[in-house]
Amino acid sequence: MNPLLDPYALKQASYQASRLVASSAFRPDDWEDIRQELLLDFVRRAPKFDSSRGKWGGFVRGVMQNHATVLAKRGYRRVRHEVLEADLACSDGQDEQTYFETVLQQDPTRELELSVAVRGLLEQLPGHLRRVALLAAELPVTDVQTATGRSRTGVYHIIGQVRQAFVDAGIGPTTGRRRSR
Question: Is the predicted pLDDT of residue 104 greater than 90, yes or no?
């Protein structure tokens, strides 16, 4: 039997592609590509079917489900490593590192003042904001997620609150930022 013409395989590929689009990091526009990738993997594995180990339908479902899991993990990894525009945006198109380097070059005593102001602001933050701020200063967001047990969205939300607290205190860039209150 030609695995590409197998109606059950086509149905399973469509089903798994729909599941991935509905529940993971794929857009509806990716549906056909996902379906084709599932079918391609299935065609590669179809010659390994052994009727003494099980039925054709179980083999088809297993291959499709396993590869759908692989695709889902890839999709989640892609999203986790995605850099959000808001993380890069700063006043006058500068990134935050360049902004602070510019400020510190203009006034050498500003570094000490900035350090004292940052420390004071961190002490005033509620405990959960302070913890995420300190972790985020040293770790990537994925490690902050693990350490706090929060979702990626939750960590970014708290980082946004911390950034807003800095802006409200007059520390850091103020133009081009929206208030999140």
Answer: no
64 phi, psi to nearest 5 deg? -65, -45
Please compute, for residue 76, the number of CA atoms within 13 A of its CA located in the half-sphere on the CB side.
12
Q: What is the dihedral of CA 47, 51, 52, 53, to 10 degrees?
A: 70
pLDDT at 64 over 60: yes
Give 125's pLDDT tier (boundaries 50, 70, 90): confident
Q: Kindly list the domain boundaries of the chain, sorted by start residue.
A: 3-80, 85-168
Q: Where are the alpha helices (DSSP H) in the chain?
A: 7-23, 31-45, 56-80, 85-88, 96-106, 110-124, 127-138, 141-148, 152-168
Instruction: Return the amino acid letter for 103.
Output: V
Q: Does domain 85-168 fall into CATH 1.20.1260?
A: no
Q: For residue 140, give both structure tokens.
A: 């990537």
